[in-house]
Design brief:
By secondary structure, the protein is α+β, with helices and mostly antiparallel strands. The protein contains two helices and 17 strands.
Length: 269
């Protein structure tokens, strides 16, 4: 009987060992397959490299930008519809940008991953502006409170846009020339009640005629502080500057920056 029991026990151990072996053989391939798949994914991710180009925007067609490479002057089209774009001003031809894209992309246009504007044409030709609350105002000055700090700004030559002019305790955006800490000259003051108006998009300077160009192609206005600003007719615009005389008070609508050496005049009032 002992031999019979021993034989039966041996058979049971053999069956149990076989089952374990079979179970182990099933799980091993699964683990190997998962590891292989993970390794393949890692290899694929390592194969995805990014490239970049610094260059000049030469054309804009919707979300497609034509950029001239700074290194060789070659042009290529980049689609920025899905890109992360870093900019302060609207994109413009002439902007200096950096574009990141997938290395070796054969698409046309090339899908951009990100775009950063390094130098903006609009930014370079725009004057600084600041928004705050008007806490005091006279005929030629206002005090603007910005984040707890107060700044005195000269408004003698400013273009004022507001339903009732400059109003105390109302928000305003002031475009200025100079240092905000050193009583700058306001070029434009837009009150909050007129933020969405067409006038808020315009720029104008009010000053006294100091000199008219000999050929009538330019005019110089003097500010209340004795600074001089030279205006010339903007491209495609004809303005008869010779119709004005020294001492006249004019309001000239212009484009670009009031700090420019020659300011493009759009029209005169």
């Amino acid at each position: 009987m002992k031999k019979v029991y021993l034989i039966i026990a041996a058979m049971l151990l053999a069956v149990s060992a076989g089952a374990c072996s079979k179970s182990g053989s099933n799980s091993a391939p699964e683990t190997t397959a998962a590891a292989t798949e993970a390794a393949t994914e890692d290899e694929d991710s390592e194969d995805i490299d990014e490239d970049y180009v610094d260059g000049l925007i030469t054309a804009i067609n919707g979300n497609v930008l034509t950029i001239q490479n700074d290194e060789d002057g070659a042009e290529a089209d980049y689609d920025i519809s899905e890109a992360e774009v870093t900019q302060e001003f609207d994109l413009s031809e002439g902007d200096w940008v950096e574009v990141v894209f997938l290395e070796g992309s054969s698409d046309d246009p090339i899908p951009a991953i990100s775009l950063e504007v390094l130098e903006s044409v609009i930014g370079e030709n725009s004057d600084p502006s600041v928004e705050g609350k008007v806490v005091d105002a006279t005929n030629e000055h206002l005090v603007l409170e910005v984040e707890g700090e107060q700044y005195s700004i000269n408004t003698a030559n400013a273009y004022i846009v507001g339903e009732d002019g400059i109003r105390v305790d109302q928000k305003a955006t002031v475009t200025y020339l100079g240092d905000l800490d050193d009583e700058p000259m306001a070029a434009k003051v837009v009150m909050q009640d007129s933020y969405d108006s067409d006038e808020a998009e315009q720029f104008a300077f009010v000053g006294e005629v100091a000199q008219v160009g000999e050929d009538g192609d330019s005019i110089i206005l003097e500010s209340a502080e004795g600074d001089f600003f030279t205006f010339v007719a903007a491209e495609g615009t004809k303005i008869e500057f010779e119709d004005f005389e020294e001492g006249d008070i004019l309001r000239i609508f212009y484009s670009g920056s009031i700090a420019a050496k020659e300011i493009p005049a759009l029209f005169v009032e």
